[in-house]
Amino acid sequence: MEQETGKKSLSREELRKAQKNKASQQEEVSATEERPKKYKFRIRLIPIWLRLIIMVVVMAVAVVAGAMFGYGVLGGGNPMDVLNKETWQHILDLVNKE
Question: Kind and range of the H or E element at 23?
């Protein structure tokens, strides 16, 4: 459809050609300008393998702290009893009903 001001609307193909021409002209202009290429290298402060180990350790500490809180504060027992093997054997016996 043509607008009444006398401008002709472009078809999709014409618009794509115009955009390609504009992009190629910009590439030519940027190619003529001499710039040293900068390569971005991200130097990680903590390597990924160390992050994984830290996450596993943090998760283990959180599990132990949660068990101590649950057994000591909510359960009314001694929080250090969570670390005893006999406590866990008793809990497993209750769950399995042997």
Answer: helix 12-32
Residue-wise pLDDT for 1-40, tens only, equals: 444 555 567 788 888 888 888 887 777 666 565 566 777 7
DSSP 28-50: HHHHHS--PPPP-----SS-HHH
Q: What amino acid occupies position 84?
A: N
What's the distance, CA 11 to chain centroid? 42
**pTM across the whole model:** 0.52
Question: Do residues 71 and 79 touch, judged by C-beta distance below 8 A?
Answer: yes
Residues 23 and 49: their CA atoms lie apart, in Å, by: 42
Distance CA 43, CA 93 (A): 51
Distance CA 27, CA 75 (A): 71
